[in-house]
Amino acid sequence: MPYDENLVQRIREKLGEMPGLVEKKMLGAVGFMLHGNLACGVNKDALIVRVGPENDQAALARPHTRRFNIRGLSLLCHCRQNNPISLCGLEQ
């Protein structure tokens, strides 16, 4: 399944022209790099977000959220499951 282009577009609109932000396609997904570090992205129909260890437990307590591990980096994945995405203010 390819990534959700509508979700990618919503992220582009939300982030705008942020200094240091680069969009990269990788491994069938799209990542948004901030100063060379992955900040968020889209894999299939899921929003992948790096929230930092201080926000980890609060974010995991949200509905439809789970860990997403890629190359040893632990991120949070919000699985849409026909629900609006509210983890990063990307409500539909």
How far apart the termini lie comes to 21 Å
Average pLDDT, all residues: 78
Estimated radius of gyration = 12 Å
Which structural class do the helices and strands define? alpha+beta
Q: What's the SSE pattern?
A: HEEEEHEE
Share of residues in strands: 35-45%
Number of helices: 2
What number of domains?
Answer: 1
Low-confidence stretches: 80-87
How would you sum up the global shape? Answer: globular
**Assembly of the depicted chains:** single chain
Count every beta strand, where a strand is a DSSP E run of 2 or more residues.
6
- What is the strand arrangement across the widest sheet? 1-2-3-4-6-5
What kind of sheet is the major sheet?
6 strands, antiparallel
Helical proportion, percent range: 10-25%
Describe the structure.
The chain has 92 residues and is an alpha+beta fold. It has one domain. The chain contains two helices and six strands. Strands 1-2-3-4-6-5 form a six-stranded antiparallel β-sheet. The longest helix is centred in the first third of the chain and has 11 residues. The protein is globular. About 9% of the residues have low confidence.
